[in-house]
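User: Before I run my own analysis I want an independent prediction to cross-check against. Here's the chain; please return only the C-alpha cells and, at the end, one sentence I can use as a sanity check.
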Amino acid sequence: MTIVAMIILKQWDAVRRHPWAVFGIMLCVAGVLHLAVRHDELPKALAYLGAMLVCVFVVDLFAHWFPTQLEFPVRRPKREAVLVVGIELLALVLMILLFVVFQMNKLPLVWKIATLPALAIIFPIVLPLVLLRWKYKPAELGLRINAMSWVFIPVLLITSGTAYLIAPDDFTLGRLLASEGVLGTLVTGLITAGLSEEFVRMALQTRVGAYLRNPSIGWFFATLVWAFLHSPKWYSEGGDIYEALMGAVRIVPLGLMWGYITYRTKSLIPATLVHGMNVWGLQNF
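Assistant: C-alpha cells:
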C-alpha cells in the first residue's frame, strides 16, 4: 500500500469515528458555500476548501514521516476546561461591549486606556499567566519545535499559491505591506494574531477535548469559539449582523486546519507561523 493510500484510509477511519465533529464541519462547509454563492465567489470558495483539504493531507504526511511522542499534558481537565471556556466566554462578552455597545474605535483616548484590563482577557494575557501559575512549563504549552514543525512551509506554499492562482486581484499581501510596512505586518501577524489566537485555540481544544475525552469535539469547539470572537469587531465595521456571523462561519475551515497543525505537531510554532503569514486573502469572499 502506498503512503498516499494509507493516509487516506486513516483519514476516512477518523471521519467514521468522529461523526459529530464531521457533522459540524459539514454544516460550516454548507455555510461557506452559501456565502460564496451570495457573493458570487463560488470558484474561490471551492479552491479555499480544496486547499484546506490538501493542507490537512500534507500535515498527515509529515506526521507519517516525522512522528512525535510529544503531548499536551492536561493535569486537571475539568478545572482547566472551566477556566479556559469561562475566560473565552468572558472575552466574547467584552468584545460585544467594546465593539458593538461602546464602539471602541470612536471612544476618546482616556476611555481606550481604561479598556486595557479587558484587552488582557481578550488577547490573551491572563490565561497563559494562570496556566504558568499552575506549574505548566512553556514547552508543555506548545512553545517548542520538532521535526514536524517544518510543515508550515508546504502549508504556506499551498495557501499562498492557491490564492494567487484563483484570485490574483484579491491577493492582500501588497496592500498590507503598503499600509503596515514589513515590520508592522510581521508584528501584527505573528504576535497580535498568530501567537495569541493559536495559544487560545490550543488551550481550548486540549482542555475541552481532555474533559470530554473527545479530541475532535475539542478541536471543533475551539475553532467555533475562535471564529465567532471575530464577529463583534466585524459588525462594528460593517453594521451587518448576518455578514458578521457568516464571516465567522467562513473562516472555520481555515481555523480547523490551523488547529489540526497544532494537534498533529504538538507545537504552537508552525500554526503560529502559518497564521501570522496568512496575508493572501484566500478566505476572504
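Sanity check: The CA atoms of residues 90 and 210 lie 21 Å apart.
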